[in-house]
Write a structure and sequence with these properties.
By secondary structure, this protein is α+β, with helices and mostly antiparallel strands. It contains ten helices and eight strands. An eight-stranded mixed β-sheet has the order 1-7-6-5-2-3-4-8, sandwiched between helices.
Length: 274
């Protein structure tokens, strides 16, 4: 017997007109802010003249970018704000510099090797992290986010693509311009990155809520549905089958007394299920 056709994910259906108009405006606001920052950063390219080092630094290459990112994270004294997006070639999911930590040069005695790099988070800093849909499709993404929540980090989700960003103590920001190139901003330019982060944070939704009676597994399922992942991608992240995903979503629709995934999504957001 052939399997039943896969039900379209949440974003493929049309929300009410007023809500759809509001979402479109929010998306346009975020896109304009992102484009403005991107144009500004692209203009600060070294051209052989002296670079104002107190304002900007340029880092090229995966290893150099990863090490500077590590220094910013573990050098912070109070706060860390960041965007995590898909295809993290600089900071692999789920931990920063996980590959570099395991790499040793041949012929170097263990006593002479550098001490291992930390990857358990900076205990001095309060973390606020926003991830996008592309991040949620990465291997081990959910485990990485669960580890953040267990460590007390605040984690939120948006559906729009994010630039890769880390802000330390609202004083220094690192933004990835392209796969092999990042820029580090100091005052006063860092204020642009802070304002962009706060704008996105206000328009994001919590990754998982702790209040309410909904099972955490169902919260994860709803979060992936709202982010637009297909049943197959959702099943892969949850370690189950598409048929099980469909069955669990049907049970949630019954519990909410709704007949579609669109209605389930709006019910979930209105009733703090996600």
């Amino acid at each position: 017997m052939s399997s039943p056709p896969e039900v379209p994910p949440f974003p493929s259906a049309e929300p009410p007109a007023a809500a759809r108009s509001s979402l479109i405006r929010l998306q346009e606001d975020l896109r304009r802010a992102d484009d403005s920052l991107g144009r500004l950063l692209a203009a600060w390219r070294p051209d052989g003249r002296e670079t104002p080092g107190q304002f900007v630094e340029f880092w090229e290459g995966r290893e150099a970018q990863a090490r500077r990112l590590y220094e910013l994270e573990y050098g912070a004294r109070e706060s860390l704000m960041g965007f995590q997006s898909g295809a993290n070639t600089v900071a692999p999911v789920p931990s920063t510099l996980a590959e570099s930590e395991e790499r040793e040069e041949e012929g170097v005695r263990e006593a002479d090797a550098e001490p291992p790099l930390r990857k358990d988070g900076n205990p001095l800093a309060a973390y606020r992290v926003v991830v996008d849909r592309a991040f949620l499709t990465e291997p081990a993404a959910l485990r990485a986010l669960d580890e953040r929540l267990a460590a007390g980090h605040q984690v939120r989700v948006v559906d729009q693509p994010l630039i890769k960003l880390l802000i330390a103590d609202s004083e220094t920001a690192m933004v990835q311009l392209e796969a092999g190139r990042s820029i580090v901003l100091g005052p006063p330019l860092v204020r642009l990155a802070v304002e962009l982060f706060e704008s996105v944070w206000q328009r994001s939704r919590p990754y998982l809520r702790e209040d309410g009676d909904l099972d955490p597994a169902d919260r994860r399922l709803l979060q992936l549905m709202l982010s637009g992942l297909t049943d197959a991608a959702t099943a892969h992240q949850l370690g189950t089958s598409p048929r099980t995903v469909q069955r669990r979503l049907r049970a949630l629709m019954d519990a909410a007394s709704v007949s579609s995934r669109v209605q389930l999504g709006w019910y979930a957001m209105r009733n703090n299920w996600v």
